[in-house]
Design goal:
This protein is of the alpha+beta class. It contains 1 helix and 6 strands. The termini are far apart.
C-alpha cells in the first residue's frame, strides 16, 4: 500500500510540475538586441522591461510563418518593433519570436 501511495504521489508531482511549466505568449516592444549575451530586452504591454534568453533552438518566424535564417540579425528586430514571444515554462527562455512585417516589402522571411 505504501508503494502505491508513493507512486501516486510521484505521478501527481510530475503532472503538477508539467502544468506549471506551460509556455506562454507575451506581446511586447523591442528595446534592444544583445547578440553577445544572446538576450532580447523588451517592454511588455504592462510597461515592464524584461530580458529574455535566446538559444540555438529559438525560432524566428515572419508574419506568414516563414523562418528567418538571420535570427537575431534579422532587420525587423529594430527598436520599438512589436513582437510576440513564446516563452518557455522556465519564464526566461524564448522558444519563438514572431516578427512583424518588413516595412515596404511583401517578403515573409
Amino acid at each position: 500500500m505504501l508503494r502505491l501511495s508513493l507512486a501516486v504521489l510521484v505521478a501527481l508531482l510530475v503532472l503538477v510540475g508539467n502544468a506549471l511549466a506551460v509556455d506562454k505568449e507575451v506581446k511586447c516592444k523591442l528595446v534592444k538586441v544583445d547578440e553577445k549575451n544572446m538576450v532580447l530586452i523588451v517592454v511588455t504591454d504592462e510597461g515592464k522591461e524584461i530580458n529574455y534568453d535566446v538559444n540555438d533552438d529559438t525560432k524566428f518566424l515572419g508574419p506568414k510563418g516563414g523562418v528567418s535564417d538571420k535570427k537575431m540579425k534579422d532587420d525587423r528586430l529594430t527598436k520599438d518593433a512589436e513582437l510576440i514571444l513564446v516563452i518557455a515554462g522556465n519564464n526566461k527562455t524564448i522558444r519563438e519570436v514572431r516578427l512583424p512585417e518588413r516595412k515596404g516589402s511583401d517578403k515573409d522571411k
